[in-house]
Amino acid sequence: MDGFEYRNGVLHAGDVPLPAIAEAVGTPAYVYSADGIRSAFSRLMAACETMGAKPHYALKASPNLHICRLLRELGAGMDVVSGGELERAWLAGTPMEEIVFAGVRAALSGRFSPLGTAAESFGRSGIEARGPVGLINVESPSELERLSAIAAELGVGAQVCVRVNPNVDPKTHEYVTTGKDRNKFGIDVDQVPPLFERYRDDPYLELVGLHVHIGSSVRQTDPYADATRVVLALVDDLEAAGHAIAVLDLGGGWGAEYESGEAPSVDAYAAAMAPLIAERVAQGLRVIIEPGKKIMANAGVLLTRVQHIKQGRTRRFVICDAGMQTLIRPALYKAFHFIWPVQIEAQHLPPKRAEHLDLEDLVRCDIVGPICESADFLAHDRDIPEVKRGDLLAVFSAGAYGMSMTSNYNDHGRPVEVMTDGGKATVIGERQTLAAVLEREREGRGLELGW
Ligand code: LLP
Question: Ligand 1 centroid vs 420 CA: distance in angstroms?
Answer without folding.
Answer: 25
